[in-house]
Amino acid sequence: MPLLFGDVIFDLASGHNMLSGDALMRILAMSPDSVQRCIFVTGVAGIYTRGPKVFDDAMLAR
């Protein structure tokens, strides 16, 4: 099982940029045979409408 995470990457326009793990999964999910299951590990318990550590109005979605 591959373990993916975001990292700083080289960017022609700015010299560097952040490639997030979320963006990697969106790219991989475009190929129907590449991803069957995906698990995201986060620093909060649950799935929120927004980042609960940053936004006071974040609500537990699931």
Could you explain the architecture of this structure?
There is one protein chain. The chain is of the alpha+beta class and 62 residues long. It has one domain (1-62). Helix content is 15%, strand content 16%. A two-stranded antiparallel sheet has the order 1-2. A hairpin with a 3-residue loop joins β1 and β2. It is flat.
Considering the chains and any ligands shown, give keywords for the structure:
alpha+beta, AceGlu_kinase-like_sf, 15% helix, 62 residues, flat, single chain
Order of helices and strands: EEH
Helical content class: 10-25%
The helix/strand class is alpha+beta
Overall, the morphology is flat
Provide a count of the helices: 1
InterPro entries: AceGlu_kinase-like_sf (IPR036393)
Please outline what is shown here:
InterPro entries: AceGlu_kinase-like_sf (IPR036393). The protein is α+β, with helices and mostly antiparallel strands and 62 residues long.
Topology, element by element:
Blueprint: E1 7-11, E2 15-19, H1 21-29
Antiparallel strand pairs: 1-2
